[in-house]
Design a protein that fits this description.
Elements: E1 4-8, H1 10-17, H2 26-36, E2 40-44, H3 54-63, E3 68-72, H4 76-85, E4 89-92, H5 112-124, E5 128-133, H6 137-145, E6 150-154, H7 156-159, H8 164-183, E7 187-191, H9 199-203, E8 210-213, H10 215-224, H11 226-238
Parallel strand pairs: 1-2, 1-8, 2-3, 3-4, 4-5, 5-6, 6-7, 7-8
The structure holds pyridoxine-5'-phosphate (PXP).
């Protein structure tokens, strides 16, 4: 099965917010990603608004031609925004203000009543709901019981594995969780920390139908665009 690529444009917004200016615009990045073949645009509207802003979400909802996947915490404020902007998919993620990035999956099992309620409210708004969880069989089963149509498996531990043995162990956890999700009738995505050298191990897992990748793509875009960007500036400086 070929997997859908969801391009996460959060870090284009990170660069913009570093100066609080209008560029680079994640909305433009999303359009270019779609032109290049991205089959989904993913953004995380965080409680502290450190990268993606509400304005981005509004414009992305108007302009994204593929699927818009909104990652968000399972809070009242965010559920209200999801109902307002109606992304195609909401991925519920855990969120701690001090974390560098989303560390670890959502504990669906430990807060099943709350997650179940949020899933229902979003589904009542005709939004597909995915839960971002660690590749753990109990979390997969709890996600199914909570009413989610999809799960996204956190690949962070696989990506950070120190040696082959550890990597294989993490990979088999992902495989087992993906098989369980499919067996329960849920769609299964994966993401976090995937880059050009580790992605193929995950694309080989037939049960995974989607990958969400952000940091490595934005990082590569910065480097591949450097030559053109410097030449453009020299032209402005020295052109007629
Ligand atoms: N999927 C989810 C649920 C995430 O929270 C993130 C990070 O925002 C990603 C995918 C993308 O991770 P990365 O930027 O490391 O590719």
């Amino acid at each position: 099965m070929t997997q859908r690529l969801g391009v996460n444009v959060d870090h284009v917004a990170t660069l913009r917010q570093a100066r609080k200016v209008g560029y680079p615009d994640p909305v433009t990045a999303a359009a270019l990603a779609e032109l290049a073949g991205a089959e989904q645009i993913t953004v995380h509207l965080r409680e502290d608004r450190r990268h993606i802003q509400e304005r981005d979400l509004r414009l992305l909802r108007e302009t994204v031609r593929t699927l818009l996947n909104l990652e968000m915490a399972a809070t009242q404020e965010m559920v209200k925004l999801a109902w307002e902007y109606k992304p195609d998919v909401v991925t519920l993620v855990p969120e701690r203000r001090e974390e560098l990035t989303t560390e670890g999956g959502l504990d669906v099992q430990g807060q099943k009543d709350h997650v179940g309620k949020v899933v229902k409210t979003l589904r009542d708004g005709e939004i597909v709901v995915s839960l971002f969880i660690d590749p753990d069989l109990d979390q997969v089963k709890a996600s199914h019981r909570a009413g989610a149509q999809r799960v996204e498996l956190h690949t962070g531990r696989f990506c950070e594995a120190r040696d082959d043995k550890d990597r294989q162990k993490e990979l088999s956890r992902i495989v087992d969780a993906a098989k369980m999700a499919t067996k329960l009738g849920m769609g299964c995505a994966a993401g976090h920390g995937l880059h050009y050298d580790n992605v193929r191990a995950i694309t080989r897992i037939a049960e995974i139908d989607e990958l969400n990748i952000g940091h490595s793509i934005v990082a590569r875009a910065v480097l591949l665009g450097m030559e053109r960007a410097v030449k453009d500036m020299l032209e402005r400086m020295r052109g007629a």
